Amino acid sequence: MGFMISNLSCKQNSREADDRIHQTEIDTTETIIEVEPRAFTGEIRSVGSSGKSVSGEVAMRVEGDLMRFDISADGLAPDMMHMQYLLVSQTGDETQCPGSVEDLTSTEGDNGTTAASGTTLRRIPLHMGGTLDLESDTYPRTNVNGELQFSHVISLDSLRQSVRNEYQMQDLDFSKFTFVIRGIPDAQASSTPGRGSTASVQDTPVGCAKLQETVLNN
Questions:
Q1: Strands, E, within the chain: which ranges?
Q2: Residue 169 carries which DSSP code?
């Protein structure tokens, strides 16, 4: 009799375990369905009076914890490193490409810029792995024809955490951001003393793209 009770108890525990596994599978499936990928694109155009006609496209795909971006541009200075970043309003307002270089002036020491209107803007670099460090001696480099092809994947959760810690911003609405590209001479980048300095970001922007959400073709 005791064996029968023990056997029934084992069967019941087994069924309960199966039910828990099944429920977990349902919950996981529902989570996957709820978090749908999103896509953002922008047409790169010239900024400034360098005499060069910069053009190209930036494409971003956000899926789960990952953000992938692909950048294709030409008309840039040949054989030069180029820093690329997203320009974000500190207040969460929509940002626009500057009408001229004078619309954006560097704000020393705080990883940001100030728009002509006085709005504080922040930079989110795209060459790093979810951090806000702008300085580097290995920015993507154009070829001898001034063309740039660059793809990268970063952790979206890490990026969100960095933005919350550094700028006290709780949300990343990419449809309100702009993409900016600027050339960095080798000597200037190699002399960068560290994070918080603006030694590597003094050059003016040469290209910009206003991001907009697009229909995603899976």
A1: 38-46, 55-63, 66-74, 81-89, 104-107, 112-115, 120-125, 148-155, 178-184, 207-210, 212-214
A2: -
Which one of 2.170.270.10, 2.40.50.140, 2.60.40.200, 2.40.50.100 gives the CATH number of domain 38-214?
2.60.40.200
Helices and strands per DSSP (H, E), number in the chain: 3, 11
- Alpha carbons within 13 A on the beta-carbon side of 166: 22
Place of tokens 């959400």: 213
Enumerate residues 6+ apart whose C-beta is below 8 A from 171.
92
Report pTM: 0.70
Asked whether the beta carbons of 183 and 82 are under 8 A apart, the reply is yes
Which amino acid is located at 128 in the chain? M
Contacts of 194 (CB under 8 A, 6+ apart): 135
Side chain identity at 48, as an amino acid letter? G
pLDDT over 60 at 215, yes or no: yes
Between 31 and 158, residue with greater pLDDT: 158
Contact of 127 with 184, CB cutoff 8 Å: no
Strands (E), 111-155: 112-115, 120-125, 148-155
